[in-house]
Amino acid sequence: MQPSTIAFHETSERAGALLESGAAFARLQGQLPAPAAHAQPVDVVVIGAGQAGLSVGFHLARAGLGFVILDAHRRVGDSWRKRWDSLRLFTPARYDSLVGMPFPAPAGHFPTKDEMAEYLEAYAERFALPVRCGVRVDEVWRSGERYLVRAGAQDYLARHVVVAAARHQEPKLPAFASALDPSIRQWHSSQYRNASQLNAGTALLVGAGNSGAEIALDLARTHRVWLAGRHPGHLPVAYDGALARHVVVPIVFRVLFHRVLTADNALGRKARPKFVGHSGPLIRVRPRQLAAAGVQRVARLADVRDGQPVLEDGRRLSVDNVVWCTGYRPGLDWLKLPALGTDSRPDQYRGVATREPGLYFVGLPFQHSPSSAMIHGVARDARRVAERIVQRMRMSV
Fold first, then answer.
1. How far apart are CA 15 and CA 105, in angstroms?
2. Lower CB density within 10 Å: C or N end of the chain?
3. Is 149 helix (H, G, I), strand (E, B) or coil?
């Protein structure tokens, strides 16, 4: 039987067994909390109001389902507003639209992070999506045939839950980060905004992927910069040139990353660990740009000795700042469900949890393909998840 058949056509007997599995898991984790008397019943709770959650919401609204989108930020789009000041999207505006609303910019324009934030906020308003901002989800439990979603003072009883939140990842730092001299200012890339946050002098960027390379260029204007890590490869042509805009970008983003490398074929499954656990190739920055800006490439960081970073080649650097561009680890301990694999990542196929009927994910790295982390890929994944929810709702009537 193919994976798609297993994921999308489980029998009612299998679903019942999974319900029992969820209950057993809850008992192992501790006593299942009783829903509050004022718990709100709803068809679907969507956790996260970024591009993934809003895309799911669009399709749920068209299907006429009762749902709510919960987001911990003060405003829709804040997950973008809080990123570093010079950030632009990797994809031009022609690929940055969610279903039903074109991105308001010329097709070849690379939106800023604030333009993307404003677009998402306008999208939620245009389609009157039921977003509740400033609401952080604390726990999700199985409660009989529904899910108990605890969010501050409010409880929700949902038939389906979609995890579409950046909160499912936490900054990843090596254990020896705490051994750095206290005078060295440290930031994770998720905390970095601009050079004014750093001490004067030197800066070490740990991690040579897209975030590391772009922040290195940003800091090179004010600091002496080292970029530590293996070069992950890069696009062979200038990203903003005519050849890239009309040939390379469409082939890479719409064909290779969207249709060729997928979880449904051996080529995609072989490539998936690289995209999930490591950085993909540099999209915008090329090695000669780094060299021209004065960024010095060095070996991977291996340890800390006497408070200073030590590279794999034994070289010790004297630095004033470290920016950790070391990615994220799953942070799903608030899901009190048997939904994670041995690597602590969601056990899912095309966004449908394989051991929890009624639980879904959107926006995961390589959820189905590399484009799952891009706007156009998120839109496709969200539509499939919404279709599955609608299908299950109809089957249960």
1. 46
2. C
3. strand
Helix (H) or strand (E) holding 187: strand 185-188
Quote the tokens at residue 196.
């004014």
Do the bridges between strand 40-47 and strand 154-163 make them parallel or antiparallel, or are there none, so unpaired? parallel
Integer-rounded Cα Rg, in Å, for the chain is 22
* Beta carbons of 203 and 226 less than 8 angstroms apart: yes
Residue 199: name the closest of 228, 177, 219 by CA.
Answer: 219
More confidently predicted of 233 and 304 = 304
Cα dist from 244 to 108, 156, 254, 359, whole Å? 11, 47, 13, 39
Q: Does the predicted model carry a pTM greater than 0.70? A: yes
Residue 158 parent element (H or E): strand 154-163
Q: Is 145 in contact with 41 (CB distance < 8 Å)?
A: no
DSSP classification of residue 194: -
Of the two residues 395 and 360, the one the predictor is more confident about is 360
Q: Summarize pLDDT for 252-291 with one digit per residue, the tens.
A: 888 998 899 999 999 999 988 878 866 678 888 989 999 9
Q: Where do we find the tokens 């067994």?
A: 17
| Confidence check: pLDDT of 20 > 50 | no
Structure tokens at 333: 């301990």
φ and ψ of 273, to 5 deg: -60, -35
